[in-house]
């Protein structure tokens, strides 16, 4: 007779199976979420009472609430103690993965930028005087044309319910105040200003609002000037890198695996050095070597009577330079992977082929390459995926340049999708448009997902998983 044990939430024995795992994750997620929400509320309250409070105070609150909440939850669910080892992982997952994804998706549908940052616009402050009842502000002069409502960027003509930012003489701590209405060059506040605060200036609040699909319409509306050329080069760069690095690394790996080659240990050591040197150093070195005027490559061409090549100044040559430098950085990995894969092939196969009269080339094409195919498939797919978002070499070698006529200033000749989004978000040429960069990031995600699915299907990964 089989006895079925009923699970109780107050039991010390943890639940089993998928149901138990999901229940434990749900309880831990609620604990972390509640601590984060309450910590955020407490930090906001602290900021209002103590404006000079440090920003990291929210972290102190959250950790303190977690320390208090964990024993309380353990009293309610004694078995959850066995799952507390997941708590640090969930915290880091929420902070460094889930939160950035949520913010990126949220910003993609707003107009969030350096101009619309949600903070006060200190560049257009206006002198202001406060009335005796401390409820009315009068501007000496409106900094911009269009009237007071246009200057304050009010949602309505009366500005009722909108926010204005006030400064004292030191202008160290801005104070936000709600407006009840405007009249001419005067602002009526919803509440009186504190007696301890002497208003000398005011400015508007650069709010950011939801704009729906406006960012995506802008991207696809100007696709020929940025999205299409950048996407095509991204695919060409990733595919070209895979082809060049694989051919070069495969050839060297097969040659150096030959046990009859003298000094092959020395050759291996020398050829693996580009992989051992940090890529940041190698890329900066190549940037100096390929300098059109002072680089040693063009100096050598000059000694041979050849014309200098604009390696980094011409759109086509810049793309060639990126591929060549990436070849220098990537072929040692492919060479090492080839030699590791070759060590798994039985030598008896080559001996039998030699007895049958097969040449060295026939052995390579008939034995080596077919047996390496299965080992190299995941390597090639991962290499393509890595180089599809290989921001480092683009930024360090060319910074996405040079510029191309007919393309936007944020999409240079060697910009890939990721560097294009970076330029849009953080470069002055992109106006620090974080919302547009977030929309680009979402497009990159779906493109990468689509290409990965095609690659996996072509490689038969799904078929192998089903089997």
Automatic annotation (TrEMBL):
Reported function: Part of the ABC transporter complex MalEFGK involved in maltose/maltodextrin import. Probably responsible for the translocation of the substrate across the membrane.
Subcellular location: Cell membrane
Top-level taxonomic group: Bacteria
Entry-linked InterPro entries: MalF_N, MetI-like, MetI-like_sf
ABC transmembrane type-1 domain mapped to chain residues: 231-455
Family label: Belongs to the binding-protein-dependent transport system permease family. MalFG subfamily.
Sequence intervals crossing the membrane: 21-43, 55-77, 84-109, 230-257, 269-286, 316-335, 434-456
Topology versus the membrane: Multi-pass membrane protein
Protein name (Swiss-Prot/TrEMBL): Maltose/maltodextrin transport system permease protein
Keywords of the record: Cell membrane, Membrane, Sugar transport, Transmembrane, Transmembrane helix, Transport
């Amino acid at each position: 007779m089989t006895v079925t044990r009923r699970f109780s939430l107050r039991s010390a024995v943890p639940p089993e199976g998928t149901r138990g795992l999901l229940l434990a994750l749900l309880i831990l997620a609620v604990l972390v979420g509640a601590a984060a929400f309450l910590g955020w509320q407490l930090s906001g309250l602290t900021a209002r009472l103590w404006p000079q409070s440090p920003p990291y105070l929210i972290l102190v609150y959250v950790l303190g609430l977690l320390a208090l909440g964990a024993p309380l939850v353990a009293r309610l669910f004694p078995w959850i103690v066995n799952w507390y080892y997941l708590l640090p992982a969930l915290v880091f997952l929420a902070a460094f993965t889930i939160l950035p994804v949520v913010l990126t998706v949220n910003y993609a549908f707003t107009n969030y930028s350096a101009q619309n940052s949600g903070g006060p616009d200190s560049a257009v402050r206006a002198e202001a005087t406060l009335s005796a009842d401390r409820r009315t502000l009068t501007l000496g002069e409106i900094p911009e044309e269009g009237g007071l409502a246009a200057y304050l960027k009010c949602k309505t003509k009366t500005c009722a319910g909108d926010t204005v930012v006030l400064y004292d003489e030191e202008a160290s701590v801005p104070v936000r105040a709600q407006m009840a209405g405007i009249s001419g060059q005067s602002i009526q506040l919803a509440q009186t200003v504190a007696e301890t605060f002497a208003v000398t200036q005011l400015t508007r609040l650069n709010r950011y609002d939801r704009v729906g699909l406006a960012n995506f319409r802008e991207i696809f509306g100007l696709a020929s000037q940025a999205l299409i050329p950048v996407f095509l080069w991204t695919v060409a760069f990733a595919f070209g890198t895979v082809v060049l690095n694989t051919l070069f690394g495969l050839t060297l790996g097969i040659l150096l695996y030959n046990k009859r080659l003298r000094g092959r240990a020395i050759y291996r050591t020398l050829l693996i050095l580009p992989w051992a040197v940090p890529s940041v150093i190698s890329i900066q070195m190549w940037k100096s070597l390929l300098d059109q005027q002072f680089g040693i490559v063009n100096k050598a061409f000059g000694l041979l009577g050849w014309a200098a090549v604009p390696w980094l100044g011409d759109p086509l040559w810049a793309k060639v330079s990126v591929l060549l430098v990436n070849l220098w950085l990537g072929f040692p990995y492919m060479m090492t992977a080839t030699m590791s894969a070759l060590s798994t092939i039985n030598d008896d196969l080559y001996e039998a082929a030699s007895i049958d009269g097969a040449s060295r080339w026939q052995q390579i094409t008939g034995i080596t390459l077919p047996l390496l195919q299965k080992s190299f498939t995941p390597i090639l797919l991962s290499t393509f995926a890595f180089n599809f978002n290989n921001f480092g070499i683009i930024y360090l070698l060319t910074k996405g340049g040079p510029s191309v006529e007919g393309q936007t200033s944020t999409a240079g000749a060697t910009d890939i999708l990721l560097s294009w989004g970076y330029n849009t978000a953080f470069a002055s040429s992109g106006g620090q448009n974080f919302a547009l960069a977030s929309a680009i990031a979402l497009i990159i995600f779906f493109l990468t997902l689509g290409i990965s699915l095609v690659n996996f299907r072509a490689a038969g990964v799904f078929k192998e998983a089903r089997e």
